Amino acid sequence: MSAALIKGTEIAAAIRQEIKQDVEKLKARGVTPGLVTILVGEDPASQSYVRAKQKTAHELGYYSVQENQPADISEETLLALVRQYNQDPKIHGILIQLPLPKHINETRVLYAIDPDKDVDGFHPVNVGRMVIGEPAYLPCTPYGIQQMLIRSGVKTEGAEVVVIGRSNIVGKPIANILLQKAPGANATVTICHTRTKNIAEHARRADILIVAAGKPKAVTADMVKPGAVVIDVGVNEIGRTGEGKRILVGDVDFEAVKEVASAITPVPGGVGPMTITMLMLNTLNAAKKKG
To answer: pLDDT confidence of 42, banded at 50, 70, 90?
Structure first.
């Protein structure tokens, strides 16, 4: 029997409906969630991501600002722009689209964001709060994964979780989120990476397998315990159709693994739709603090 699909598209839509209702309540109190997205240069992928974020913000009734800056902007000018929005009372969330041009120190720019407006959850203050279990803006993709598990009825308490990938964007934060002494967490977590010996052996122990390896179809059916829940974070383009449409696959061999797992996320339509939604939720929560 094939695995049940954990559809991020549907879960994200439900969360956005909840956000809309909260936005209306906030506006009744005179507060409108405000988000600024800062884009440096004209990278097509970055432009696409920013457009999607701005479109979602508008749909939810946010006050949104799009800052397009030239690729040759100086680091000091960009830092001054960040400081400007740190002081702007109409802006509750600041997002800087990465990557930045090579002449700009990304770390310095990200660290310049007011931690209370760091709705991407990358500032070390928020990372530290996350690790010690204090209230924090959680990184959007891992936050989305946790919400998918909770809203799909997947029990994390006492579960054996294996995370394949140790990036600061997905692997490390989702491991930290799921091991917290908190609802939707309380798991036993193992992180595997490129230097891990016998990854398949670790993966087969997982009740919940979270894969952010960055390699198409890296996880095969023989690496998955029967009945496991599989969360596939990967998005890999492996070609184009005759009409020029991108062919996307995840880091999991979906067709084979779905016959072993009890539940699995598809690619596309799985984790991806959750990321922008959680960005909007972080921004809403930042506005609530001021409202």
So the answer is: very high
